[in-house]
Amino acid sequence: MSAPSDHPLETAILGGGCFWCLEAVFQELAAVRSVTSGYCGGNVAAPSYEAVCDGGTGHAEVVKIAFDPAALPFATLLDVFFAIHDPTTPNRQGNDVGTQYRSAIFCQSETQRDAALAAAARAEAHWGRPVVTEIVGPVPAHPFWPAEDYHRDYFRLHGHQPYCAFVVAPKVVKARQAFAHLLAR
User: HEC string of 69-80?
Assistant: First the structure.
């Protein structure tokens, strides 16, 4: 993540499978100021990781991203998002299965919603299959709940673990190759 700028930051809340994968990729983008793993879209206040994993809360694993839209437009952020996960599989990413792993964009404004719909159309053309990404909002009725502290910087701290090595690392490598021009130097 790069140094702060004078530009006002924008917030994005995205779900694309395991939040460790999304966090690891978005932390590397130059215009991203912070990435926080958490939960959104459910029906229980302050859910725990265990409750979300059990599937009964209705939450998706998400990341909340604070970014500089002057340096990284929301549409470009969404292009990265759609490139690093499969938005055509409902309620799963690879071996991670359940509604908590659904593809979702929790729009913070009508402008974000319009950009999300356009990005989903681009992704559908790219993937050649229907995109099932849930595009929600803008609705303040779906609060973001930060994940427990041990989820922060998970890939950076635990990159040697098998899940990180076999699931997270390939997504990071893919993003580095496809979006090298957006990376922090």
Answer: CCCCCHHHHHHH
